[in-house]
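User: two proteins, same treatment. go.

Assistant:
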Amino acid sequence: MESAWREAGVIEGRCEELGIGLNIENIQIGPSTVRFDGAISEKTQVRMLGRLKPELEYALGIGSIGIEAPISGRKFIGITTARSERRMIRLGDVI
């Protein structure tokens, strides 16, 4: 979980450099992906999010990421990245 929060810091920092205010509020770790949900600032224009994908792929060193914006009609975006190693999901994680 600690490495996911480090990645969240990289994402927030790169967004700040691009003039996009993003605050990661939730991280969901799955067996093969990590999803970062964050609130974007009121000043952020939607057209600026188009520049975000290649910049984050380079900053994180990941071949492909997914960006979903907006989430549930709120000013939230979701960023999904592939995990370098697969995580075993145990029954206790689900229950």
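Protein 2:
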Amino acid sequence: MLRLLAEKATPLLRWMEKYTKTDMLYLAKGGFWLMLGQGILVMSGLVLSVAFANLLPKDVYGTYQFVMSGSVIISALSLIGLSSAVMRATARGDHGALRSGVRTMLRWSGGIVFSGATLALYYYVNGNSTLALSFLIVGCFSPFLGAYGLTKPYLIGAQRFRESALMGFWRRFIPVAALLATVYVSDNPVTIVFVYFASNALSAWLQYRLIVSRFDLPLSEDENIARYGKHLSFLSIISTLAGQLDKVLIWTTLGAAPLAAYTLAQLPIGQIQNAFKLLLSLSFPKLSKSDLTTLQETLPHKVRLFLLSTVLIAGAYAFVAPYLFGVLFPLYPESVLLSQVLALTLLSKPRSLYGQALTAHQKKKEQYIISLGSSTVRVLALLALIPLYGLWGAVYALLIENVFSNILTRYLFWRVR
């Protein structure tokens, strides 16, 4: 049936290429499988979010989200930028990049273990055994999550979109089933955190072993993968710290329950943004093989089309948000308006294609300027606005940072040579 649909759609897609200036067959084929994989992620995430929001007390859910934000920050101390380096190397034909990347990331995971242990000791000394045990768990399991999670960028770089979607289903099945069973019988944050990290680490390792065995992957000797990965990782540390600061400030100044409401307000927006990231991932192999001069001529038209569709999606979401929260998260009516305003941040995603092009062509200077500039604006705005306006201060700060980042990225893309 899929083959029949493809044959019927081919003439239409070829006709559309005259106006979109894009390889629509590639976009449709790869996009179908990536959207299928994203649909699996969205549904599994939605099921878990509904279970957490309705089965757990607000303070427990807020505590869990604080630990998750802390784990993201801790994970930034490893070579998380290797994902883009592995994807780029694979797109250029180096299929040994996955095994090389995993080994490199595991060797550089000491920062995660040390940071997790340090935070655990800090909270233990201060009498908070819940956070102490939680961050000890984070430090133990995060290195494996990051390293074996490189399978997804490998599959995308290799343009194995079908395998990425199908394996992603089994990758999510174990953690979702384990977490649903856990929150049904327990509201202990430490237990939930342990089940999350242990089940995800196990499923990520199983997927990695399956991919290495199935495709008989070699071990790359290209040292540029590690070098570029270290560069991207440094940028990721800056952006990750800035990206999680809003949750840390809300936790410390407002408490666990407001953090839970803010997290749920961001949840649907984050899922839509993840869908947009699929388009960016889909474009990465193509961007890597095109010269920048050509991209400066062709990308603006594609960005405008992307922006038009984004405006429609953001408007549609703002309309349905009250009904969505009324059905799925009835205990959090305060999140509705926050989420509707946060939908404006979606409008910045189309111009991420410019940043993706800079990454694909290793334009390090421009990447540093964008990362440092955007992160600085975000941090300053959060520090100034959250004490004044609470949750709304965090929303205002995100909007300010998005506008600044868009202007800066577009300017640097046009001037780069």
